[in-house]
Amino acid sequence: MAQTPAFDKPKVELHVHLDGAIRPETILYYGRKRGVALPASTAEELQKAICMDKPLSLPGFLAKFDIYMPTIAGSREAIKRIAYEFIEMKAKEGVVYVEVRYSPHLLANASVEPIPWNQAEGDLTPEEVVALVSQGLQEGERDFGVKARSILCCMRHQPTWSLEVVELCKKYQQQTVVAIDLAGDETIQGSSLFPGHVQAYEEAVKSGIHRTVHAGEVGSAEVVREAVDILKTERLGHGYHTLENEALYNRLRQEDMHFEVCPWSSYLTSAWKPDTEHAVVRLRKDQANYSLNTDDPLIFKSTLDTDYQMVKQNMGFTEEEFKRLNINAAKSSFLPEDEKRELLELLYKAYEMPPSTSAGQHP
């Protein structure tokens, strides 16, 4: 018998990775089609190889991508298809607006030597990846009614890619792209200060490109401070370790910083230690500005409801808080103001709340 959803009203999701949200069946299909070896021949077996059911380190989690990404990276057909199927997946989860992120370079297979299946399809550029993902998202939006926008990721270990990423953000602003992100292994010392990343974010500020940064997931509060003060981020991906610096946390709360919280992810990547209070409990108590997100639902074998159930059952979250955090997610989205107003009106109506209600305001 299916579990009753923790929150069965329209939802907004701001932090989910496209390459961490692929259907196992699609991976198997392209593995066979492109002659890429996989450790499984059925969706169930593949999930056992890829999915996590107990906590790993963040590098241990990141290694999971190496198992299946060669089936997708470098394939025009596969890249467009995963974007389209992603929207179908989110429609089933009751999401009405989603911002999905990815690295154009990783999907283009830029980080590895070309191998026969890549050469057979011809070299794929990061720009082609952005065009293909945008097409898939737009077709999904048309067919499934979920409004979708995309965020392009710079990678901490590849600062030479970042200036190209920001140029792609500028070029594809009218075709789903709304922001730039910095993702990857936060434990690389000082990586947010690498010149390539700093220059890309300076260009983003100058060009009116919205900014988010993975910071304070496993990294210290200092990584968060760098993201805010040097990269001028408008939102924080995860951000849990901000709470280790009370002055920084209080400042960011006063500045209405949005925290993209991924509860189930934080458990499985060991970003959160279960014998401590989760940062999201403090955010709720303080009526701070945050959202709930899946991060990488393929690897975590989850849906958005997994995260809502986790905080409802284990942390006492209520429907009223779910409404508040989704309204804050909509307000903190990277949509233009007129589209943001439309999204908020949709939520207020679905939640049976007057637009001026105090529950919709964050301090």
Automatic annotation (TrEMBL):
Similarity-based family: Belongs to the metallo-dependent hydrolases superfamily. Adenosine and AMP deaminases family.
EC number: 3.5.4.4
Subunit structure: Interacts with DPP4 (via extracellular domain). Interacts with PLG (via Kringle 4 domain); the interaction stimulates PLG activation when in complex with DPP4.
Gene Ontology biological process terms from the UniProt entry: adenosine catabolic process; hypoxanthine salvage; inosine biosynthetic process; negative regulation of adenosine receptor signaling pathway; purine nucleotide salvage; purine ribonucleoside monophosphate biosynthetic process; regulation of cell-cell adhesion mediated by integrin; response to hypoxia
Protein name in the entry: Adenosine deaminase
Reaction equations catalysed: 2'-deoxyadenosine + H2O + H(+) = 2'-deoxyinosine + NH4(+); cordycepin + H2O + H(+) = 3'-deoxyinosine + NH4(+); adenosine + H2O + H(+) = inosine + NH4(+)
GO molecular function, one term: adenosine deaminase activity
Gene source species: Carlito syrichta
Membrane topology summary: Peripheral membrane protein
Enzyme's top EC category: hydrolase
NCBIfam families attached to this UniProt entry: aden_deam (TIGR01430)
Highest rank taxon of the organism: Eukaryota
Reported cofactor(s): Zn(2+)
Location(s) in or outside the cell: Cell junction; Cell membrane; Cytoplasmic vesicle lumen; Lysosome
UniProt xrefs under Pfam families: A_deaminase (PF00962)
Gene3D superfamilies (alphabetical): Metal-dependent hydrolases (3.20.20.140)
HAMAP family: A_deaminase (MF_00540)
GO CC list: anchoring junction; cytoplasmic vesicle lumen; cytosol; external side of plasma membrane; lysosome
Keyword ATP-binding: no
Domain Adenosine deaminase: 10-349
InterPro entries per record: A/AMP_deam_AS (IPR006650), A_deaminase (IPR028893), A_deaminase_dom (IPR001365), Ado/ade_deaminase (IPR006330), Metal_Hydrolase (IPR032466)
Keywords: Cell junction, Cell membrane, Cytoplasm, Cytoplasmic vesicle, Hydrolase, Lysosome, Membrane, Metal-binding, Nucleotide metabolism, Zinc
